[in-house]
Design brief:
protein disulfide isomerase activity; Glutaredoxin; 6-stranded mixed β-sheet; alpha/beta; Thioredoxin-like domain-containing protein; Thioredoxin-like_sf
């Protein structure tokens, strides 16, 4: 949940207002945030900061964007709040420090100030909290909630070490298919595995399940998640149906080098072991174009897209 109110403006009626904020295409989202600059007292000024939203136009993506900007640059986390804070965003950066490690906290705060537009940052000074996470202090963890592929920086660190951790945390072996990067999924020397989903919940579940496979087959296969509605024509071209409550999530593997396509039987639960057998069979050249896998997998738990 976010605390920021959402307001709809009809730019055909509020022409001057929309001109003021350089809005010339629709829909457009702007985040207005009041901030104080200067010293406390008479010299302090309150002004409105306007941020242009450029992310995906989904409720999940917009909520995450707003939630990040409701938080301070760096949050001290109490033991009772650690579980909820770890999952507040797709990627959350937490430093586990001893109370006397002020210099390390200063380094971490400096990096957080430069990168808070993209990440949520917090820190804990509780030894028991670090013990519960299986960590020796000091340590920094980048929690990747979208796929569970967490990154850890152990021991004393400098700003460059933390920046490298952030760069590593940005990388995902299962990417998101967009119009801008579609060409990256057409590498002739590799297979492309597309996961078509209609909810963020099913995308997250499958990323968690299949990330180990994506790492194992990284040299030979590119993994990507595609929105089932936005990329319905692509799914159809691979022989997947968009009809019925169990149509998605769905999975197809495309071989750009010869345009062969292999699909996972729709309506069956997408299981890691079955997908691994599917990839192995294709890479060994034992699969026929158009072959459907997953016939022995369990059916969907219910008649709806998972989660």
């Amino acid at each position: 949940m976010v605390k920021t109110p959402f307001v709809i403006v009809d730019c055909e009626k509020e022409v001057e207002l929309c001109k003021t904020y350089d809005i010339n295409s629709y829909p457009t989202l702007r985040l207005f945030r009041k901030e104080r600059h200067g010293k406390d007292g008479e010299d302090e000024e309150l002004y409105t900061q306007v941020k242009r939203y450029r992310g995906r136009r989904t409720a999940h993506a917009i909520a995450l964007y707003v939630r990040k900007r409701e938080l301070p640059i760096l949050t001290r986390i109490e033991p009772s709040d650690i579980s909820s804070f770890k999952t507040i965003d797709d990627i959350v950066i937490i430093a586990y420090l001893r109370p006397h490690q002020d210099s390390l906290l200063s380094v971490f705060r400096s990096v957080a100030a430069r990168n808070n537009e993209n990440f949520v940052f917090g820190y804990s000074l509780e030894t028991q909290t670090a013990d519960n996470e299986g960590l020796a202090m000091p340590a920094i963890v980048a929690y990747r909630n979208a796929d569970g592929d967490n990154k850890v920086l152990n021991g004393h660190f400098k700003e460059g070490d933390v920046e490298s951790l952030l760069e590593n945390a940005r990388k995902s072996v299962i990417g998101e298919v967009t119009e801008r990067n579609l060409a990256e999924y057409m590498v002739p020397a590799k297979l492309t595995l597309y996961i078509f989903t209609s909810t963020s919940g099913s995308a997250t579940r499958l990323r968690h399940d299949l990330t180990p496979l994506a790492k194992k087959f990284e040299k030979f296969v590119i993994f990507g998640v595609a929105d089932a509605t936005e990329y319905a024509p692509m799914a159809k071209s691979f022989g997947l149906s968009n009809e019925g409550e169990t149509a998605f999530p769905a999975l197809a593997i495309h071989a750009p080098m010869n345009d062969n396509v292999f699909t996972y039987r729709q309506g069956q639960r997408i299981e890691k072991g079955v997908v691994e057998d599917m990839l192995t069979t294709i890479l060994q050249g034992k699969a026929a174009n158009g072959q459907i896998f997953g016939g022995g997998a369990a059916r969907m738990d219910d008649g709806h897209d998972e989660l």
